[in-house]
Amino acid sequence: MSAQPAPDKPVTARPSHDTYRASHPVAALPTTLFEDHPNERSQYEALKARLLKQLRPEGELELQTFERYTYAVFAAERLRKLELTAQDRWLENPDDHERFLQMERLIKLATSQERRADQALKEFRRQQMDRFQSLDVAHEIYLAGKFIPIPGALPVSEMRARNCSAPRIAFQIMSNQPKTMAILRGDIPGPPRRSKTNEPNS
Question: What is the pTM of this model?
Fold first, then answer.
């Protein structure tokens, strides 16, 4: 008697990504969070307006860091609220392991977002400090009769903390301009040197 083939096991349909995202809003990406939960947008925009008024970012670099900080703060506050709800559900039935895991996951996610917020705020402060320290450097460049934008990513505050003065940083910036570099390489002639015959006798 020939062996009969084993019957196929029933295939359990897995929930689609959209279904999972709708039932687990904490897993939503920033680009889709407000699409799935429009009521969250007004809360985020209100927080952003308050922080924008207080932090006052300038330039694209600071704005990008500000956006990361704002969303991390928003996400952390949101997750902490969900964490409290999950904790209340678990306390109703402490033997429910699934509820405990949900609460534990929310705690980890909230902690992760708080860490991201701290890192973004630290970077934002460094960027603003560089911008303020750049004012003295920009003044030295202006006194030299030049108009050269200072790179936004230049770590001016770090350089000045290493006893690099504003005039020295200004000189380094001006020395690294294409025309100056071409003169140093000998590609183009530099400005005429002052004749010693016009100098007063000592």
Answer: 0.66
